[in-house]
């Protein structure tokens, strides 16, 4: 997989921004899951993790109650407050991870430079479990299975993202 420039471990933390539409279901869940993986490796100081939405209508809200219920059952406490993605996020993050192709298109249209656009890597590029989905589907109008599916995809994707990025950052020969 082609990844953008990622700072080496000694250069400082790697900064990852998860992005969906409303920033109340998928991206705050992705943020919470990656945060938990990072913590379990005692690597909190090596990562900056945040999330945002391309739509600002839920700004200031906690994640959707249904997502919080399903995430809590798996041990994730989601306390992020929704915010809208801003073009300045391109300078504040190394990796910008859209959940679906509409989010990806939106982000691409806002990228100030080609180097910034290269920071956009869809979550599904990290998902290796068997699935018929090529995107993290919006659970907002779905039932419980929709939320469980999102968490399954995100747990798989975030584990691989953590492993891939950690291996890159520790590779002193690159
Ligand atoms: P999310 O889900 O993008 O995963 O946070 C949605 C939440 C709210 C809306 C759409 C999707 N909405 O249109 O309000």
TrEMBL record:
Q: What SUPFAM superfamilies does the entry give?
A: Phosphotyrosine protein phosphatases I
Q: Where is the active site?
A: 20, 26, 138
One Pfam annotation reads: LMWPc
- The Phosphotyrosine protein phosphatase I domain extends over 14-164
Gene Ontology molecular functions? protein tyrosine phosphatase activity
Q: Which CDD domains match?
A: LMWPTP
List the InterPro entries. LMW-PTP, Ptyr_pPase, Ptyr_pPase_sf, Tyr_phospatase_low_mol_wt
Keywords (A to Z) from UniProt = Hydrolase
Read off the PANTHER family from this record. Answer: ACID PHOSPHATASE (PTHR47439:SF1), LOW MOLECULAR WEIGHT PHOSPHOTYROSINE PROTEIN PHOSPHATASE-RELATED (PTHR47439)
| Similarity annotation | Belongs to the low molecular weight phosphotyrosine protein phosphatase family.
Q: Can you name this protein?
A: Low molecular weight phosphotyrosine protein phosphatase
The organism encoding this protein is Muribaculum gordoncarteri
